[in-house]
Amino acid sequence: MEALKECRANLVVYLHPQKAKNVMDAVYRELSSLLFKFNEALDGVVLTYEPKFSSNLAKILPGIHPYFGVRFEAKLLLFYPKPEMLLEGEVVKVGQQSIHIIVLGFASAFIADEDIREDFKYKIKHGKEVYISRSDKKHRIKVGTTLLFSVKSFDEEMLHVCGSLIPTNTGSVQWLERKAEESQADSVTEKSISNKRPVEVLETDNLVPYSEKLKSENHIKKSRRSKNRAS
């Protein structure tokens, strides 16, 4: 997914002296408080973390209750959706005016009617709401569909994505993958055909039975020998 990235960050966690005996636990608790929240300094939502401590030294901050700062490096996985990026999510609700999606199990996404391309037509099939492609009826969007869509905007505070199905490379992931496989198979077939050399077909009028060809060659050899003897 385009909106996921790994990064390494140098962090400092300031702890109360009473936590000096369990520094590691205290650091992990502080890191846990960053999860599933947008961090401006990191420009993304922290999904996972993996700290690495290279020193057991800490910097003491002066004060009535002097805190101490623990420095470490952390490998972080961030969610940072930007406009025109492609996201995948599971459709949880389909309506005539919108499609609702959950991304990565925590972020909500919304696609309004004006952002659904005209190729998709809203219908109710067997009591269930569904969008069906006019160009291929097998391409359907319903509750439970894994949907690939484009990002229009991202609300950092609400963790809410406004999406779009206008680009032609968006839609049901299952349908898109099947089309990609079919296209690749067709490309391989065309390439193999183009690499084959054409078979040369001889005209039937020019074909001579092999036995007659041998007789003709033997006759020519005998006539040459007779001429050589005569000379």
Properties at a glance:
231 residues; alpha+beta; Dna Ligase, domain 1; OB fold (Dihydrolipoamide Acetyltransferase, E2P); 2 domains; 5-stranded antiparallel beta sheet; 5-stranded mixed β-barrel; 3 helices; 14 strands; elongated
Question: Would you summarize the structure shown here?
Answer:
The protein has 231 residues and is α+β, with helices and mostly antiparallel strands. The chain has two domains: 76 residues, Dna Ligase, domain 1; 91 residues, OB fold (Dihydrolipoamide Acetyltransferase, E2P), CATH 2.40.50.
Q: Specify the CATH architecture of the largest domain.
A: Beta Barrel
Order of helices and strands: EHEEEEEEEEEEEEEHH
Percent range of helical residues = 10-25%
DSSP summary, beta strand count: 14
The gyration radius over C-alpha positions equals 36 Å
CATH homologous superfamily annotation of the largest domain: Nucleic acid-binding proteins
Global outline: elongated
Mean pLDDT: 85
The SS-based structural class is: alpha+beta
CATH topology of the largest domain: OB fold (Dihydrolipoamide Acetyltransferase, E2P)
Largest sheet: 5 strands, antiparallel
Low-confidence stretches: none
CATH class of the largest domain: Mainly Beta
For the termini, the CA-CA separation is 91 Å
Plain-language structure description:
DNA-dependent RNA polymerase which catalyzes the transcription of DNA into RNA using the four ribonucleoside triphosphates as substrates. It is found in: Nucleus. This is DNA-directed RNA polymerase subunit. InterPro entries: RNA_pol_Rpb7-like_N_sf, Rpb7-like. By secondary structure, this protein is of the alpha+beta class. The protein folds into 2 domains: 4-79, 2-Layer Sandwich (Dna Ligase, domain 1), CATH 3.30.1490; 85-175, Nucleic acid-binding proteins (OB fold (Dihydrolipoamide Acetyltransferase, E2P), Beta Barrel). The protein contains 3 helices and 14 strands. The chain has helices at residues 23-32, 173-195, 210-230, and strands at residues 4-15, 38-39, 44-52, 58-60, 68-79, 86-94, 98-103, 107-112, 120-125, 128-133, 140-141, 146-155, 160-164, 171-172. The strands form 3 sheets. Strands 1, 2, 3, 4 and 5 form a 5-stranded antiparallel β-sheet that branches. A hairpin with a 4-residue loop joins strand 2 (38-39) and strand 3. The longest helix has 23 residues, at 173-195.
